[in-house]
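Most newcomers find our protein records easier to grasp once they have seen one. A record pairs a protein's sequence with a compact description of its fold. An example says more than a description, so a record of this kind follows:
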Amino acid sequence: YASVSKYSNDGRPLPMLFHRTQACLEFNIRISDEALNGLIRLEGIDVDAIMTGGVLPVMTYPFREMSWNTDDSEAKDLTVPKSKGDNDNPIEITSEPLTFRLPLVPQRQRIFHIHFRQRANTGIDWNERSVTMTYDHNDINNRWEIGKKYVYNITIGIHAITVIPEVEPWSADISDVYM
């Protein structure tokens, strides 16, 4: 939303300030080594018990700290990406990161699960079972806050899966947003 940064009675245009009212989760997922190209496919990233709505009282002048009321909101498990690749198959993960974003109301950080399939080294058959890796925040009392983007850089390797979290201001780039 926008708010007026100062008041004027002389008819001149007023400068505006723009504010994000949500937080954003960004998942960047890739493989660690090009030797794994074609061997790992993403089925989805599930985020547990996300509050999917709420009420945001907005008072633009004077600007004050805002907070969402999610008391009457329903918690849902959400999955990104919502659609899969060609023919509804899991999406191939390469050494170039795949990026998925999820805007959400500010709330306590939640656990997420990465589901993927891996092909045996023979390159013949896909494993019919899904592999799941669960990421639990070290401090579950942390919150995803208004105007911030929480970036999770996920790398799948032969012997390990690493998740490196980062927090940064959320810019105007909202391409590839799933809701």
About this structure: The first strand starts at residue 2 and ends at 4. The chain has a mean pLDDT of 78.
